[in-house]
Amino acid sequence: MSYLFQTRREATQKKPESAAEQQRKIDDVRELLGDLATEMPSFLSDGTIRRFLRSRNWSTEKAAKALKEAVKWRRQFKPETICWEDLPGIENEVRRAYIPDYLDKNGRTVFVIMTSIKSLTSAKEHIQQLVHNLENIAMNSEDAQEDNVVWMCNFNGWTLSSTPLWETRESLHIIQKYYPGLIGAAILSNPPKIFESFWKIVKQFLEPTLQEKIKFIYSNNAESKRIMADMFDMDKLESAFGGINTASLDISKNKIISLVNIKDYMEALLTNKPFNLLMTKIISAQMISEQDSNSFPNWYIRKVTRKSMHRVFLLFRKYCIHEPVTDVAPLMSAEIRSYDPVSIPQCLGSIYAK
Questions:
Q1: Can you say whether the dihedral through the CA atoms of 136, 141, 146, 150 is positive or negative?
Q2: Phi-psi region of 284 (alpha: psi -120 to 50; beta: other; left: phi over 0)
Q3: What local confidence, expressed as pLDDT, does residue 145 receive?
Q4: Which among 277, 272, 259 has a CA at the least distance from the CA of 85?
Q5: DSSP structural state of residue 264
Q6: Cα–Cα distance between 263 and 6 in angstroms, integer?
């Protein structure tokens, strides 16, 4: 591990101690954004602004500047339009990069990359899938107070041709510039000796705060095993990372995560799409789950629904009924509060009918 790095620490502003102080910072950034705040309201949420503030040491000026750059990129790339069905070779690619159906012991979302699986798509399409996953991760981190994603990459079988340097640089650029404040820890597992030269180049693209979060682990190293056991339930962790889970990836889980994506709700609300189209997607996910009672990622559905339903109802009232509302609690049925995904569009439809 001779290539493990030394990092410098940048001067940081004092983190706001109270929720009210954080909200003032968020409001200050929103004021600096001006009309942009209304151009992309679903992106420029309080959660997004909070993430950018965290990543910029709570500097409102730096956060606003970074958000303006992110908005410019989103206008061109249109990440919100990427969906499961549009991704080439998705069933192979999802085995290379996926969100598993478990969390770490701190309740953080996990993102896994398996470099040993040969890709069937181009580097450009890799970037597209990365952005699709980052959108899901960012949405799932809407209310997070800290960076709450564990990024894990297994390098068994890695060669210089596995990850072109330009693709690595572009991926890191997108993660750090347009999706900051997500990664709380990064695990690089079993990199071969040849990776040392590659790493010396790659780490030049990393911001110091991200460098500090990276850990190298090795299967035959006792300290590595301790680190992973402290972070994960070893029964659920893949064997590639030192766990004892040898089960193959269930593609349906990742498909459900894509189907039951709150952005589907947002799209339906903002474009007045028929609710039966939205309901079809949700019921499709429910049907997949019924094939195997253990396959449905209930933790994901609960988090998505709980964190996003308030915003969904506000948007629904504003755009579909043209009636602004500030308190949606009375509108939320028992079915909604129990996080039943099939009941959500039905409940929205009943409100629309009123």
A1: negative
A2: alpha
A3: 81
A4: 259
A5: H
A6: 40
**At which residue do the structure tokens 């590639």 appear?**
240
- Above pLDDT 90, what percent of the chain? 38
Please check whether residue 13 is in contact with residue 58, taking contact to mean a CB–CB distance below 8 angstroms: yes
Place of tokens 């028929």: 274
Buried b (16+ CB within 10 A) or exposed e, 190-214: bbeeebeebbeeebeebeebbeebb
Let me know: does 127 contact 121? Beta carbons within 8 Å.
Answer: no
Query: CA-CA distance, 240 to 301, in Å (whole number)?
Result: 27
Report how far residue 142's alpha carbon sits from residue 197's, in angstroms, rounded to the nearest whole number: 37
pLDDT in tens, 145-184: 888 899 999 998 888 888 888 999 999 999 999 999 999 9
Contacts of 78 (CB under 8 A, 6+ apart): none
Nearest to 83 by CA among 205, 211, 257: 257
Alpha-carbon gap, residue 339 to 336, rounded angstroms = 5
Of 314, 348, 280, 47, nearest in space to 182 by CA:
47
Cα distance between residue 314 and residue 320, in whole Å: 10
- 227-232's contacts with Cβ under 8 Å and 24+ in sequence apart are 228/187, 230/105, 231/104, 231/105, 231/106, 231/150, 231/185, 232/102, 232/104, 232/105
Cβ-in-10-Å burial (0-12, 13-18, 19+) of 99 comes to: buried
Location of structure tokens 């606003």 = 64
Distance CA 4, CA 214 (A): 9
Residue 185 CA to its chain's centroid (Å): 14
The verdict on domain 80-249 having CATH code 3.30.360.10 is: no
In this predicted structure, the answer to whether residue 309 has a pLDDT above a threshold of 70 is no
Do strands 109-114 and 97-98 pair parallel, antiparallel, or not at all (unpaired)? antiparallel
The rounded distance, in Å, linking the Cα atoms of 251 and 78 is 25
pTM of the complete model beyond 0.90: no
Domain boundaries, the chain: 19-75, 80-249, 253-353
